[in-house]
Amino acid sequence: MMRKPIMAGNWKMNVDHIEATGLVEKLHFTLVDKDWDPAKSEAVLCVPFTDIRTVRTLIDGDRLNFGLGAQNVSQHDNGAYTGEISTAMLSKLGVGYVIVGHSERREYYGETDAIINAKALKVLAAGMTPIVCVGEGLDIRKAGQHVEYTLNQVRGTLADLTAEQVAGLVIAYEPVWAIGTGEVATPDDAQEVCGAIRKEVAALYDEATAESVRIQYGGSVKSGNVAQIMGQPDIDGALVGGASLQPDEFAAIVRFYQ
Ligand code: PEP
């Protein structure tokens, strides 16, 4: 089964809605100049909530081949949840992807596997695709527990999802020690865990589901290391933080296959 590579840029809490216009246009022109073939890789921009309307307008107006993503969502439908944003609000703005369970949300906002699971279910119910983040911290890696720890997060975050739902979603393996640190997991390290995740999906569901689900690696991915990472059999894309704010870098990551 051919899984289409998916490169998602996570802008985090950077880029206001004015700056977003410049970044999207630069990215678009860089990719067009360099002959990007959108049939060979999918590019998704996961932007702050306040940029969604602007980026949606640019994508529609200029017929850009970018997917639009959010970085978080509430697990509740609506109501007295001050400051929260619902899946219905996002889907109405044409958002296609939502990152759930990023390690920064787990660490700073206390998100547990159960909360992330509830968010993933809501995202799916609203017809969007969750990018479910998993991955171990440095202490777990040093103790040699990284595979079991990450698989436990996979089981927790995918609880109650159907095989059909899992087949269509994206799992991002992001070792926390490699995020924003310049420290990249070796391609073998990344493959070890991504391969184990695919096997776990096969065990929890079936082979067809495991063959279909797309698994990203995330952690200091740059133009210089993306080809090696993408050369691994169980890695189908990248979740990119810092480098997604640099149009030339992100464009090169999207065109990793050239
Ligand atoms: C991320 O935030 O998901 C990430 C992988 O960041 P960076 O690429 O900067 O390590």
Automatic annotation (TrEMBL):
Compartments, as annotated in UniProt: Cytoplasm
One Gene Ontology cellular component annotation held by this UniProt entry: cytosol
Recorded catalytic activity of this chain's protein: D-glyceraldehyde 3-phosphate = dihydroxyacetone phosphate
GO function term, MF aspect, one: triose-phosphate isomerase activity
Listed InterPro entries: Aldolase_TIM, TIM_sf, TrioseP_Isoase_bac/euk, Triosephosphate_isomerase, Triosephosphate_isomerase_AS
EC identifiers of the protein: 5.3.1.1
Pathway stated in the Swiss-Prot or TrEMBL entry: Carbohydrate biosynthesis; gluconeogenesis; Carbohydrate degradation; glycolysis; D-glyceraldehyde 3-phosphate from glycerone phosphate: step 1/1
Active site (UniProt): 102, 174
Pfam families assigned to the protein according to its UniProt record, in alphabetical order: TIM
GO biological process: gluconeogenesis; glyceraldehyde-3-phosphate biosynthetic process; glycerol catabolic process; glycolytic process
Keywords: Cytoplasm, Gluconeogenesis, Glycolysis, Isomerase
Record carries keyword Cytoplasm: yes
PROSITE patterns for this protein: TIM_1, TIM_2
Positions annotated to bind substrate: 10-12, 180, 220, 241-242
Protein task: Involved in the gluconeogenesis. Catalyzes stereospecifically the conversion of dihydroxyacetone phosphate (DHAP) to D-glyceraldehyde-3-phosphate (G3P).
Subunit annotation: Homodimer.
Similarity comment: Belongs to the triosephosphate isomerase family.
Name by which UniProt lists this protein: Triosephosphate isomerase
Taxonomic classification: Bacteria, Bacillati, Actinomycetota, Actinomycetes, Propionibacteriales
